Amino acid sequence: MTAFRTLDSADVSNKRVLLRVDLNVPMENGKVSDATRIERVLPTIREIADKGGKVVLLAHFGRPKGRDLKETLRPVAAVVAEHLGRPVGFAEDCVGPAAKAAVDAMKPGDVVLLENTRFHPEEEKNDPVFVKSLAENGDLWVSDAFSAAHRAHASTEGLGHVLPAYAGRTMQAEVEALAHALEAPKRPVLAVVGGAKVSSKLELLGNLVKKVDILVIGGGMANTFLAAQGKAVGKSLCEKDLLDTARSILETAKGANCEIVLPVDATVASEFKAHAANKVVSVDAVGPDDMILDIGPASIETVKGKLAQAKTLVWNGPFGAFELEPFDTGTNAVAREAARLTKAGQLLSVAGGGDTVSALNHAGAAEDFSYVSTAGGAFLEWLEGKPLPGVEILRLR
Ligand code: AMP
After folding, report:
1. Is 318 touching ligand 1 by the criterion CB < 6 Å?
2. Which of 82, 120, 177, 241 has an alpha carbon within 20 to 30 A of 270's alpha carbon?
3. H helices within 150-272, ranges in order?
4. Cα angle vertex 323, ends 319, 327, to 5°?
5. pLDDT digits (tens, 9 = 90+) for 268-298
6. Where substrate is bound, by residue (predicted)?
7. 185 CB less than 6 Å from ligand 1?
8. What are the CA-CA distances from residue 374 to residues 23, 209, 216, 297 (Å)?
9. Domain end (from 172, 194, 213)
10. Are the beta carbons of 100 and 56 closer than 8 angstroms?
């Protein structure tokens, strides 16, 4: 594991600290509906401010095409202030005179949020001139936005080329948690990959079979693997054009000594609806009108048994259509068992990506996992084994 420069070695006192954070929070009717991302960056903001730094927050919001006040960060500044319990100033631009005036007026310990970096198309192009304009308002750059680290944008990567670069506390925690799970893990490592489709997780499966000892496949994507083994899957979600791909993943796994665990039974229904009439069948007895919506009780027991052998768990994707009761049963049972083993000190558990956080929250298990990543795309790219530019730039060379 390569080391990073962290806040431990940063001298921030009386310095202008450009702090890249993820404030791309969900909004409903002009109000922040989930402040998890804001909560996550508070420790870094507080630490820099308490050490006498001037905290200049940089963030993107939505996908504006140029300056578009529908995507302004202004209302978010107020919510950050509320959660921080301190005033947070706001500047109408992240570069130019408005940004400079706001930053020049700061005293040590002050916090200012600059307007959406994506109001400038140069942000996503990592344009060197734009990077320079951003850098004019900072003495050093701290990145605390792991969730944006799969993008080499001006504020997520470019600034690291022109200013002394440090990992914020959230970035540090995330990278350390992920490194413990896949780079230098305690073995056996068990990965759970579920969710809807194989097609969206091909690279992820390809990487994991080479790195983990046991790969548990669940969710809709397991149907494609069952079909690849010649089993009938009725009306279940199944990607018929990927049967060969599924077979080749199984072959690669064999060559890499990775044990693949597929469901042995399933909860099936005739419609994709909460509380639809359902029954448990063996995966060898799925009828033509059956739709597999969850793993069955025998599969739950199998997965629990595998979990008991594992020292490390990496999880992405639910075991079934967890939004529809009772097809959340498999996901809930396995998530709770993983949480229990983690709490008992027997398992290091890391989860993230897409719907996984809501599935684990739904199961009431997220709190007890070792680490739950709120980063969607970045977490998945990391699972795919890709270097993340916004992380690579922070490594000590
Ligand atoms: P993903 O974003 O790929 O992790 O997929 C998550 C989605 O997969 C959730 O919305 C689940 O409802 C869905 N899903 C999981 N298992 C099944 C299944 N057996 N049939 C249909 N959809 C499923």
Report:
1. yes
2. 241
3. 159-162, 169-178, 202-211, 219-228, 243-255
4. 50
5. 999 999 999 999 999 999 999 999 999 999 9
6. 22-24, 37, 60-63, 118, 151
7. no
8. 12, 24, 22, 29
9. 172
10. no
199 C-alpha to ligand 1 centroid (Å)? 12
As a whole number, mean pLDDT of residues 103-112 equals 98
Domain that holds residue 41: 7-172
- Please say if 195 is a catalytic residue: no
* Pairing state between β 89-91 and 165-167: unpaired
Q: Which of 343, 358, 364 is nearest to 36 (CA)?
A: 358
Is 296 close to ligand 1, i.e. is its CB under 6 Å away?
Answer: no
Place of tokens 């665990």: 261
Residue with tokens 């890249």: 20
39 and 166 fall within a common domain: yes
User: Same domain, yes or no, for 212 and 104?
Assistant: no
- Type of residue found at 170: T
* H or E segment to which residue 113 belongs: strand 111-114
* Mean pLDDT score across all residues of the chain: 95
Q: Is the pTM of this model over 0.85?
A: yes
Q: CA 44, CA 46: separation in Å to the nearest integer?
A: 5
Q: Are 334 and 208 found together in one domain?
A: yes
Contacts of 41 (CB under 8 A, 6+ apart): 19, 21, 22, 23, 144, 145, 168, 170
